[in-house]
Amino acid sequence: MIICGENCTFDKPELHRQYLNALSHGPCDENRKIVCVCPFYAHQYAVYIDKCPREDTREIACKSPQYAYFYALEVDKCPRDDTREAACKSPQYAYFYALEVDKCPRDDTREAACKDSFYACKYALDVDKEPTNVTRSSACKESEYAYLYAKDIDKKPRDDTRDAACKNSEHAYFYTIVVDK
Questions:
Q1: Is residue 122 within 8 Å of 94, Cβ to Cβ?
Q2: Is the Cα dihedral 118, 120, 122, 124 positive or negative?
Q3: How far apart are the two ends of the chain, measured CA to CA in Å?
Q4: Contact 97/116 with Cβ under 8 angstroms?
Q5: Which helix (H) or strand (E) holds 176?
Q6: Longest alpha-carbon distance in the chain
Q7: In whole angstroms, what is the distance from residue 164 CA to residue 6 CA?
Q8: Alpha-carbon distances, residue 141 vs 28, 31, 33, 110, 170 (angstroms)
Q9: Interior CA angle at 17 toward 16 and 19, to 5°?
Q10: What proportions of the chain, in percent to the nearest 5, are helix, strand and coil?
Q11: pTM for the full predicted model
Q12: What is the residue-level pLDDT of the chain in tens, covering all 181 positions?
């Protein structure tokens, strides 16, 4: 069973049946109320049935960081505070939102992405396109990402990345031969 958000699992045949009915008959407030209790179906309804953004479908989509991001990307086709805030509940979707919806760095998406060392590195590399103290600090929480940050983003040795990388012998070794040269 796949769970996509609050009140929604893909094993609820009545939701799927109502969605298919709406798909064949077009938008209607009654179908929208029934189907849009789930972020997945709210997003799908907006994309394939309404074919435009609406406050009610956006509100339900925003109960899931994943579908808030997809709603902004595919339905709104522009950044909005409410979809960004919802996406920022997940480091992964905060990173994707900054990269593909905002298309620029922002403090809120950076802060959310930096809750995970992997996404901190990705944010620095793909969104900031330069090292920052915030992303480096997050990357240094894990030896692997401290090494990768030094190698791919700083592109030079630093005491903080070296200290963090040296907490693991394998990463210390690679830091020495690749970053320190």
A1: no
A2: negative
A3: 50
A4: no
A5: none
A6: 66
A7: 38
A8: 50, 47, 44, 16, 16
A9: 60
A10: 70, 5, 25
A11: 0.90
A12: 344 555 555 566 777 777 777 777 778 787 778 778 889 989 998 999 999 999 999 999 999 999 999 999 999 999 999 999 999 999 999 999 999 999 999 999 999 999 999 999 999 999 999 999 999 999 999 999 999 999 999 999 999 999 999 999 999 999 999 999 8
User: Residue type for 57, please?
Assistant: T
**87 Cβ neighbours under 8 A, 6+ residues apart:** 65, 68, 69, 72, 93, 94, 96, 97, 101, 109, 112
Alpha-carbon span 91 to 115, nearest angstrom: 6
**Which residue type sits at 58?**
R
Task: Tell me the chain's radius of gyration from C-alpha atoms.
Answer: 21
How is residue 124 written in tokens? 């620095």
